Amino acid sequence: MMKFIQPLLFLSLSFFICRNAFSQQTAIDSASEVRMYRDIYILSSDSLKGREAGTIGEQMASDYISKQMLRIGLLPNGDHDGSYMSEFRMNYPVIYKEAKLRIEDIDFKYKEEFGATDLSAPGNITAPLINIGNGISASIEKGDKKYGISDIAGKIVILDIASGTKIEDNDSFLDDLIIRVKSVVQQGAVGVILHNSSRHATEDVLFGSPFTESLNVPVVYIARLPFNKISEISTGTCSLSVEIDRNVSKPANVIGWIDNKSAKTVVIGAHYDHVGITKSRTGDDKTPRIHNGADDNASGTAALLELARWAVNNRNLKYNYIFAAFSAEEKGLFGSKAFCSRQWVNINNIVYMINMDMVGRLGCQGDTISILGVASSDIWGPMIDTIQHTDFSIKKILGAPAFSDHSPFLKKGIPVIYFTTGLHPQYHTPEDDIELINFKGMVELESYMQHFIRSAERLPEIPFHSIGPVHNVRAYFQTFK
Q1: Exposed e or buried b for every residue in 174-197, given b needs 16+ CB within 10 A?
Q2: Sign of the alpha-carbon torsion through 164, 169, 170, 171
Q3: How many CB atoms sit inside 10 A of residue 468's CB?
Q4: Averaged over 40-64, what is the pLDDT?
Q5: Band (161; pLDDT cuts 50, 70, 90)
Q6: Is 93-248 the same fold as 2-88+250-480?
Q7: Does domain 93-248 have CATH number 3.50.30.30?
Q8: Given CA atoms 124, 126, 128, 134 in this order, what sign does their dihedral have?
Q9: Which residues neighbour 456 within 8 Å (Cβ) at sequence distance 6 or greater?
């Protein structure tokens, strides 16, 4: 029970403190400002200790957000009936302490020539070696297995991860790879050595897939050139050892939605986690301190909730609307990646995605709102030009680099739009606090986004357009300059 009592006590106390704070805020004069002030005040409180993904502070934040979604009237869209919480498994950090690989009389250099993958378990094994080529592809029926249990059991297997079928994206590639590796482990392999005979890049799949549960044997990857030393070996003796420390946690996305009985859905997202208690990226004082992340991204979360309040009261909207508060963005977009791993998240069901990240500092770098991802659909640019915005200027940025939660949607071929008021000197420092948030600017942005959503609903379609690498490079400099 103590797990739930602490967040509830915190929230009750926060509401009391927040009411008193409102009475002292003469600059706040609209209901929308008051609500967003309350949300940011609570989410960026020291009591949440920086909302690092997987911590109690972040759980307190997710509890608060889910209660707000309930009050707003959003339908729950979590893992269980009546729940807004959608948990995912996160391997972070994964600390690879040491690994050794010796095949016959050849020793390989750890990190330079080979490394333990995210599928690996710790272990120390010496066993016969067998090279089985591509092994068993996900596209091959079980009755067509080339190698039986008698060939693999008790051996360390060399497996070529180049697929015999064309795989369009990393998600499909990872699914195919896991099926093949699991297959040889289930047949009794005591270790697996992966290599890639194709030129399809695999490093981001093998090293950095936080949802992949480790198997019960060591699984390593050997690079292309080092593999040439053993490419002609089909059998032999191998010694393989891996030492790993895993920190496995289960953060949760908080998901609510409006069901307008449409076949199409719009996703509106913002991450609610931050970097926790850590050293500041600036200044000489490197003592770990709480980073409250009022702008990054309590501001985006507050804007998400306020937009949901508006949408709930506008039943003439034709699309369904999902409001997603993503976790673990700061760890590597893990929350939005987990959301996009759902099979129904695709261009056939999702019209487009709005991302809000750091939207609370209008005026810090000029009265400008940056809109990234404009090139993800040919209609975005002309549509944006038709929306009035007298209180600020718009910077249209064609690209949308992979530094926020829009990125997994782009990879699924879904148009995106990413709103931000830009970087500032307090970014990822302990000074990113509520005193610097421009609430009137946030209200202005909310009004603009309401017009944006209505304009998008009037479009006959929103076709996806792939963003080229040149646009993304330019967007990086346009955003961070």
Answers
A1: bebbbebbebbbebebbbbbbbbe
A2: negative
A3: 12
A4: 97
A5: confident
A6: no
A7: yes
A8: positive
A9: 266, 351, 352, 383, 462
The DSSP annotation for 69-129 comes to HHHHTPEE-SSSTT--EEE--EEEEEEEEEEEEEETTEEE-BTTTEEE-TT---EEEEEEE
Model pLDDT, residue 147: 46
* Domain 2-88+250-480: top CATH class: alpha beta
- pLDDT for 11 equals 44
Residues forming a β-bridge with 158 = 131, 193
Is the pLDDT assigned to residue 178 strictly greater than 80?
yes
Strand ranges for 142-232 from DSSP E = 156-160, 191-195, 219-222
Q: Per-residue confidence at 24, pLDDT binned at 50, 70, 90?
A: very low
Summarize the confidence of residues 286-305 as an average pLDDT: 96
The enclosing H or E element of 180 equals helix 170-186
**Residue 222 · residue 101 · CB < 8 Å:** yes
Share the mean pLDDT of the chain.
87
Could you give phi then psi for residue 196, rounded to 5 degrees? Answer: -130, 110
Sign of CA dihedral 117, 120, 123, 129: negative
Determine the distance from the C-alpha atom of residue 75 to the mean position of all C-alpha atoms in its chain, rounded to a whole number: 22
CA atoms within 13 A on the CB side of 363: 11
Residue 344 has pLDDT above 70, yes or no: yes
Residue 138 has pLDDT above 70, yes or no: no
Share of the chain above pLDDT 90, in %: 68
The CA-based angle 405-409-415, given to 5 degrees, is: 115
Locate the domains of the chain by residue range. 2-88+250-480, 93-248
Q: Do 191 and 123 meet the contact criterion of CB atoms below 8 Å apart?
A: yes
For residue 130, name the pLDDT band (cuts at 50, 70, 90): very high
